[in-house]
Amino acid sequence: QVRLVESGGGLVQAGGSLRLSCAAPGRTFRWSTMGWFRQAPGKEREFVAGITWSGESTDYADSVKGRFTISRDNAKNTVYLQMNSLKPDDTAVYYCAAGAAFKTGISTMTSEYEYWGQGTQVTVSS
To answer: Could you tell me the pLDDT band of residue 119, with boundaries at 50, 70 and 90?
Structure first.
């Protein structure tokens, strides 16, 4: 079964930084749009950031623009989410997701992503 593996979550104070990684052991997603989503307790899963297979295009939720940066290293089959200036409202479980291969664009909808990781907890204290 295809699985994405997130890492890098943890507890950080407001204003701090974390870098999340998403690896895909045994399978390449170099032709897929990749996304990061998050889900806070009692809330729906929401789009955070996405990147096309080439890395040329990215998209961000308004709430994280200017603070988060998504990137990918196709040679390492890994996607990253650099999170700076973290706020308590960023507290959530963060999920990595992969879209279908060769599909263009960056969707903000969870239904457009085929593969998901188990998530990594990010907690930002005030």
So the answer is: very high
Q: What torsion, rounded to 10 degrees, do the Cα atoms 68, 85, 7, 32 define?
A: 0
Q: How far is CA 87 from CA 76, 120, 122, in A?
A: 30, 17, 11
Strand ranges in the chain using DSSP code E only, listed in sequence order: 5-7, 10-13, 18-23, 32-39, 46-51, 58-60, 68-73, 78-83, 92-101, 113-116, 120-125
> Reduced to 3 states, what is the DSSP secondary structure of residue 106?
coil
Task: Name every residue whose Cβ is closer than 8 Å to that of residue 75 and which is 6 or more positions away in sequence.
Answer: none
pLDDT tens across 74-109, in order? 999 999 999 999 999 999 999 999 998 888 899 999
